[in-house]
């Protein structure tokens, strides 16, 4: 399988939050944080804004990614948290490219906004090839030892917190209800959906040899940029690029992965723009709820992890925009709602099982091994009890076609595949699990020819 990957890659600095320690650091900003929690800013222009975002996520067990709008705050985060962080590949596209490479894709071509030696050192060296100065190079050739490559690092701070941890908020002790993460991002290149000229040229000249394209990074778009421009031109540039790929290769399968958007306007324009181009769109329960609210579709039950609510909402969005497939990945289950004929859905079902096994093994070990090892590791990881219960309950709601560690069902004119996730009790990190699920599913479906 030859696969293009765009647009966002960066370096994640993963910081394990300790409640008492983070409470102490935040104690100097109590009044400002309290004000921020009453009306969440949604972006970071000050240190109290950062704590408001982090503490809101910790209090509710939710995840979010906020943009840092002030370089001074970014420097403060570097000074206070970088030394205690674990550095790894970041960015949806970067993570997905590595998953594809490690799981056996033939050739993976990523767009790299910042080809620095450190960034290159985090790319898999198995099947990833970088278009660079007219040549295709393995990432190892552009890493630490190549002095010809120089670019500023793009570091995103990922604050991982654990279920059961406690912190002080407004003088009260708050217990975290579930593990998740808060991401603080300062990144001028990925904010613009930057497409490297070498990548763009290679994609244009070799698109007929590609089986698939995995696309992400749209959630980093901003309403207003430092030069006063907006996101519309940047989004249109990307959509035109994808459309040209499809025009030159009608068999190309495009999967677009969404994220936590800065505004409903951006979310709406991205979704409606991708809908006629992408063959499938992936998102989590928070993002599905956001889209449902935008388009006046019922979102009741989604955040409670009700599987039938997820199916109804995904099908309604497919109806509105004539989308071929929506893939919803949550902590408890993964659900595909598609126009694929039900008899062909066994391939999708197999791909979903493969995806949740890869994500479970990755969560527990922090790395991807060969497929036999992944299956062995994931077999020891228990299925989500809530996910299993929700999927078993679908039998009362819609006709089932197949059932084995999940179900294939019919809903209106859609085929539904639903499988419970496998939950690692002590994950190495929760970052990138949705990207791992989506990219593993995408690769397996390409292999199976679905």
Overall description:
It comes from Methanolobus chelungpuianus. Keywords: Cytoplasm, Glycolysis, Kinase, Magnesium, Metal-binding, Transferase. This is ADP-dependent glucokinase. GO terms for molecular function: kinase activity; metal ion binding; phosphotransferase activity, alcohol group as acceptor. By secondary structure, this protein is an alpha/beta fold. The protein has a domain at 190-448: Ribokinase (UDP-N-acetylmuramoyl-L-alanine:D-glutamate ligase), CATH 3.40.1190. Helices cover 39% and strands 22% of the residues. The protein is built from 15 helices and 20 strands. The strands form four sheets. The chain has a ten-stranded mixed beta sheet with strand order 6-1-13-14-15-16-17-20-19-18, with helices on both faces. Strands 3-4-12-9-2-5 form a six-stranded mixed beta sheet. A two-stranded antiparallel ribbon has the order 7-8. Helix 10 packs across helix 11. The longest helix is centred in the C-terminal third of the chain and has 21 residues, at 345-365. The mean pLDDT is 92.
Could you give the topology of this structure?
Blueprint: E1 2-6, E2 10-16, H1 19-26, H2 30-38, E3 43-44, H3 47-60, E4 64-68, H4 71-81, E5 86-90, H5 92-102, E6 107-110, H6 117-121, E7 129-132, E8 135-138, E9 155-161, E10 166-169, E11 172-175, E12 180-185, H7 197-206, E13 212-215, H8 232-248, E14 253-257, H9 264-274, E15 280-283, H10 285-294, H11 307-321, E16 325-329, E17 333-338, H12 345-365, H13 371-379, H14 385-392, E18 400-403, E19 407-411, E20 414-420, H15 433-448
Parallel strand pairs: 1-6, 1-13, 2-9, 3-4, 4-12, 13-14, 14-15, 15-16
Antiparallel strand pairs: 2-5, 7-8, 9-12, 10-11, 16-17, 17-20, 18-19, 19-20
Helix pairs in contact: 2-3, 5-15, 8-9, 10-11, 12-13, 12-15
